[in-house]
Structure formats: C-alpha cells, structure tokens
Design brief:
Elements (H helix, E strand, L loop, with lengths): L13 E5 L2 E7 L5 E7 L9 E5 L5 E2 L2 E6 L7 E7 L2 E2 L4 E2 L13 E3 L21 E3 L23 E4 L20 H6 L1 H7 L3 E4 L38 H17 L3 E6 L16 H9 L24 H16 L5 E4 L18 H8 L7 E4 L19 E3 L1 H12 L5 H8 L3 H4 L9 E3 L9 H4 L35 H20 L3 E5 L28 H4 L1 H14 L13 H7 L2 E4 L14 E8 L4 E8 L5 E4 L11 E6 L16 E2 L3 E4 L3 E8 L7 E2 L1
Length: 697
C-alpha cells in the first residue's frame, strides 16, 4: 500500500537520506507500474516490504519517486518494473526480476548470486544483487582534497586493485590480499618507485560471471553499477564497509602525494546482448539506455561485448555526468580514463557526432574542472580518434606511440621520422589544436596485451588457458621474442631481452608527454604469453613480489629514470605552453651516426639528438641504435656554457648498476665518439653543476 508513503521528489535520482526518511527516485519512461522492494538480508527469498508506487501520486513526467520513513543506511532495496515485453519495439520489461537502482552507491551480492538467474525467466530474488542505502556524509575525510597535480609532473602506473596484492608472496595477511586495504600497505613501494598517479582498472561493481564457463571476469570491464565500488575488493564483508575502505585508500594515497585515476566503462554494461541477463538498465528503459539496431530486438555492438550504451540520450548523459561528479566530489578521485571513449561520440544510430553532447557535458561540468580526463580514443566498431578526440581538456592514450616504438625497436623499416615525432609528444597528431605537450599519454604496454617482458619474449599470443582456442586477443602485437619463443636459459637471449626492456622503458619514461607504466613491467612480470588475461584471476595476472628482488637492477633503472623526470629542480612554469611553443623553445638538434647527418631513410635504424634543457641547466645527447650491429656515433662538442665533459647517464647495453647513474653523477666520457651497441640506447649529459669525479673512456 502507498497511502501512507509520502510523494517524495523526482530529484535527486537514487536513494537520498533526508530528515524524514529516504527519498527514492527512478527514471522509466514506458513503465506501467513500479514496485519498490526492501529486504532484510541479501539472500532473502522474498521482500520484507513492497511499496507499489501510485502512478498519479508517485510519478512526475518520466520519474517514479517516493519518500519512505524509517529507512536507514545499510537498508537493502531494489525495484520491480512492470510494462510491455515487446523486443521488436525495444521494450523488455519483466517484473519477475529484482532490478538494481542505477544510482545505488553500494551493491550487496548474495552468496548464491547467479548471472543465469537474471536471463532464464522466473523470480530471481534470492540470487539477485541488491542496492544499498548509503550516507555520503558519514565519513571523516580529515581535510583531504584531490591533489590536482600538473600533467608535467605526472607518472601514471596502471594497475589492478586486487592483482597487485593477491599473490601469496605479497607479504600481506590473507584477509587483506586483493583488497583496497591491501593496496594501502603497498603505498611505500609506489612512492619509492617514483609514481605520482595510479590508474586503477575498473572498480565499479561488475559481474565476475560475465566470462566463459568455469572462469571469472578479472579485469572488470563489465559494470552493473556506475556508483558502487566493487564489493569483492573490500576486506570488510558489508557493502557500506567497501565504500569507506575505498575512501580510506584514496585518503592514504593522497597523503603519499599519489593521485587516483579510475578506469571507467561508460560504453556498455554486463547485460550483454539480447540473450543476456537483466540486472538494471534493460528492465528499466531498454531503448533509452542502449543503442539498438533497426531490428529493435537486436543490440548495436560497437564494444565487442554485446551491447553499447546510448551515451548521448539525455537520461544516460545525466547518469554519466552524475556518476563522474559523485566520484570526484564525494569519493575525492583525481581523474578518469575512459574505456573505448570514442563510443561517447556516437549518436542513436551509431554514427559519430561532430559535437557529442555528453563529451561537452563532461568537459563543462564545474565539479570536474581540474580533474584529469583521459580518453582511449577508439572503439571496437572501427572508430579511431587519436589526435582528433572532441574537447579541449581531454588527454589521450597515444596508441600510435605504442605501435611506432614497438615496431622501431623490433627492427622494422621506415620508422625513424615517426619515432622522432613520438619522442616529441607527437606534434603530427596534436599540434594542430594548440595542445599542451602532455596531451599525449605515452605507453608501450597496458593491461590489454603483452606485458613488457612478454613483448620481448613472444612472437605470438598464447591464450589457450582462456578457453577460446587462442582466438581471442590481438593477433598483431609488434612483438619480437629475441630468438626463442617463451622462457629461456640462453644467456645471450636473456641479455638481449633485458636490453630491449630497458630501451622501451627509457623511451617511454623520457619522451615528451605524460608517461604510463604497466604495473610489474619494472620487474619483468610475465603473463606467460597471454595477451588477453581478462579471465585469469590467478598467478598469470597477479603481481609476483618475488620479482622485486630478482629484477632489482631493472627496478633501480626505472627509479633513476623517474628521479630525473621528477627532479625537484625542474621548473614547471612552462607546463601551460602549447606543443608548438614547447618545440620552439626546446633547442633540439637532430643528429645521426655522423654528427650533422641524421639518416631519415627508409632503411635507417638509428637516431641521435642533442637537446638543451635550460630549466634543468643541462644538455642531453641521445643516441638510439635499433640496428643489429654496433654503430660508432660522433659526439657534439660541449657548448661554452657547459664546458663538459659529457657524462654517461644511460647505456642500456651495460649491466646494472653501470646501465644508469643518478643523472648528475655519471662517469665522464672523454672520447669524441661513442660506440653504441646493437639494439641499445645511450644518453649523455652536460650539467652546469660540478659532477662527481668519476672517469671512463
């Protein structure tokens, strides 16, 4: 009965605490009746209370709402929504299913949760996820605020919350492994490495059963909620505990000077195609939330997952912006990386828009001003917008940086000019819109594909354990196994792989732009050749902490690279300069094996450059040899303001600790030439301050 239930308000959406109870509001244009259902436990067989919302009293336009007294944080609830089931018209109402509130700030998962129960018909009450009433004001932030670090001083570390600490050798008690609390314990490792921002793979509540039978969805790119933190990543069993534990993580990272960037999936949901389950959006207003084919019973699939969110529908635009606002304002998140962001530019027919409303909504939202916005500027439907993504404040994952650097170090022809561009923040992609140098998010590996170790250890993917006969994952990875497929005891091959790993790391960490490092690459984490480990919640994917000691020299190499990049003496006053302005002031001279003869030819595999860094009071000379024979490079004379001698900072052909020094303290190079070994990188430095008195020939 609803006679004693107050009308409530259509705004705000979701479940909102008030002095008189909780206001519930839900969007559904075509529903004929809505029932608000409450539960005493997450495994309850039936609701403890059912409130049938009166169409006259509890509906305003397309919003169903009610103010329910004596409801408190922790209360479990859901919706049953009545209406026509007519897939040919895009309508899929089914009141047998308990639906999540799209705006729920927490989600409870029953022990008997079953994805199939939400797709096979019948009452799924006991096996359905439930929404949870929360109190966003009931947490003490102790003065915490997002850090707002400039991109010029940002080093991104892409990682999986659970996988970073789930390995038995993580040194953590079992109760904390794979949790937000466990990650807090590893903050000193991140600080010591030199990381300033972590980019977390999806932490929105997702469906772990959205994967092949007998496996688990590990990555989490299958959301069921855009507001609730994933419950399984919490060391606390109750949903409200997960909300606070995530906040504890953010607060602890901020105290350590590390930003939190979330990988967000606003392009599809875990409900899949027409045969998929009904968790929420499909049962609330299917044709509003999803892009549908001309045959309205079929879903457009620009994501490769079965469905595509209708991101530029007014209700979905509001949902996306409200979600971002919540994570920024209430959860103190510093930024967002948008998975398959190009989908946000598609209209209801799937065609790209010149000025996508949702992208401008995000960019113009005052709460998000100063928040990092990073686009994966492509989608699975073939739309590729690297260098042309709509908006002024967006940065982009630079897929061309990844591909060109990989191919060049592999030994492919015709890439010297492209690599020169990539090292200078890709002016061929970004200079046309007066972008900043940090527009380009530079990376050579990420969660999707080979790890850095596997990039130099495998020619082919080895995804057999995924259960899809090795058909999944990218076929062309621009990788090279250095002579043997997979692990080897051959010291020459292992030495070459180590050299290539350092080449990749140096180019990625030192190129102009914002660098991103995949977690574990600094200690050569392997996935055994699996380049699509989305369903591998095991040691294939987890961070193996024994590698920290095994590859201590490589980790030291990364630390010293980042120490130079983040040197306190480095002046960032020019961080707002456009890319063209930056290049005009950079004083870069391109060189070759012969000092004044850079070889831009198709068959060239070498490149050198001299660059003045007045903010550091230094001059750097790079020599990059991707050829399979040693090359003798002429060295430029020291300029008058830097009397020399040149000092060796980096030589990737050498073993640790000779491969890198603190950048002001390397050994002197007194010769007029430097013999750069095959497939290696050398960086020399002239620095105004007096260096340590070490000499080398």
């Amino acid at each position: 009965m609803t006679s004693n239930i107050a009308t409530g308000s259509s705004y705000p959406l979701g479940a909102t605490l008030t002095e008189d109870g909780v206001n519930f509001s839900l969007y559904s244009k075509n529903a004929s009746r809505v029932e608000l259902v409450f539960f005493d436990s997450v495994d309850a067989q039936r609701p403890s209370q059912v409130i049938s919302l009166d169409r006259q009293r509890h509906r305003t336009y397309h919003y169903w709402h009610a103010l329910v007294p004596r409801i408190f944080p922790g209360q479990l609830y859901g919706y049953r929504v009545h209406g026509p089931f007519d897939p040919a018209r895009g309508l899929r109402f089914d009141p047998r299913y308990v639906l999540l509130d799209p705006y729920a700030r927490a989600v409870a998962v029953p022990k008997g949760y079953d994805r199939k129960a939400a797709s096979q018909g019948g009452d799924n009450t006991a096996r359905a996820m439930k929404s949870v009433v929360t109190d966003p004001c009931g947490y003490d932030w102790e003065g915490d605020r997002p850090l707002r670090l400039p991109y010029a001083r940002t080093v991104v570390y892409e990682m999986h919350v659970a996988g970073f600490t789930r390995h038995p050798n993580s040194g953590l008690p079992e109760s904390k492994r794979g949790t937000y609390a466990g990650l807090v314990e590893k903050i000193p490792y991140l600080q010591d490495l030199g990381i300033t921002a972590i980019e977390l793979l999806p932490i929105f509540q997702f469906d772990p059963q959205d994967c092949p039978p007998g496996r688990v969805n590990y990555w989490g790119y299958c959301p069921v909620s855009f507001f609730a933190p994933h419950l399984a990543y919490s060391s606390r069993p109750e949903p409200l505990g997960a909300v606070d534990e995530f906040r504890d993580l953010v607060k602890a990272l901020h105290r350590a000077g590390i930003e939190v960037i979330l990988d967000v999936v606003y392009n599809h949901t875990a409900e899949g195609n027409h045969e998929g389950p009904t968790f929420c959006f499909r049962g609330l207003e299917n044709a509003a939330y999803y892009l549908l084919e001309p045959d309205r019973a079929e879903y457009s699939n620009y994501t490769g997952t079965g469905n595509t969110l209708n991101a530029n529908h007014p209700a979905v635009r509001r949902l996306i912006v409200d979600s971002l606002r919540y994570w920024a304002a209430e959860m103190h998140v510093d930024g967002f990386r948008f998975d398959l962001a190009s989908i946000l530019s598609r209209d209801e027919s799937g065609q790209p828009l010149v000025n996508p409303p949702v992208l401008w909504d995000i960019e113009s939202e005052p709460t998000l001003a100063g928040t990092k916005l990073i686009a994966e500027a492509w989608d699975a439907g073939g739309l590729y917008q690297v260098g042309s993504f709509v908006g002024d404040s967006w940065r982009e994952w630079n897929g061309k940086f990844r591909d060109d650097i990989r191919r060049f170090l592999r030994g492919d022809d015709g890439l010297v000019s492209a690599v020169a561009s990539r090292l200078l923040a890709s002016p061929d992609l970004y200079a046309h819109k007066a972008r900043e140098p940090e527009q380009s998010i530079n990376f050579v590996t990420c969660h999707d594909g080979f790890t850095l170790n596997d990039l130099v250890s495998y020619n082919d993917k080895h995804n057999e354990s995924n259960g899809e006969q090795n058909r999944d994952g990218a076929n062309d990875n621009y990788s090279w196994n250095c002579g043997t497929e997979g692990p080897t005891d051959d010291p020459e091959i292992e030495q070459l792989r180590s050299r290539q790993v350092k080449n990749f790391l140096a180019l990625n960490m030192l190129a102009v732009g914002t660098p991103m490092l995949l977690a574990g690459d600094e200690v050569r984490r392997t996935q055994q050749g699996n380049n699509n480990a989305y369903c591998q919640d095991n040691e294939i994917s987890w961070f193996d902490w024994s590698l920290v000691e095994k590859h201590a020299g490589l980790r030291r190499f990364v630390k010293l690279l980042l120490a130079c990049r983040l040197d306190p003496a480095r002046d960032t006053a020019d961080r707002d300069a456009t890319l063209i302005e930056f290049l005009d002031d950079a004083c870069i001279q391109w060189r070759g094996v012969r000092l004044d003869s850079p070889d831009w030819g198709v068959h060239s595999h070498s490149l050198a450059a001299t660059a003045k860094a007045p903010r550091l009071g230094a001059v750097f000379h790079w020599m990059l040899n991707a050829y399979w024979e040693p090359l003798d490079f002429e060295l430029p004379p020291a300029p008058s303001e830097h009397p020399g001698p040149w000092r060796r900072w980096v030589d990737t052909a050498l073993e640790s600790p000779e491969d890198i020094f603190p950048w002001r303290c390397g050994p002197a190079v007194t010769n007029a030439h430097y013999n750069v070994q095959p497939r290696s990188l050398v960086i020399l430095v002239l620095e105004a301050a007096k260096p340590s008195p070490v000499t080398a020939g």
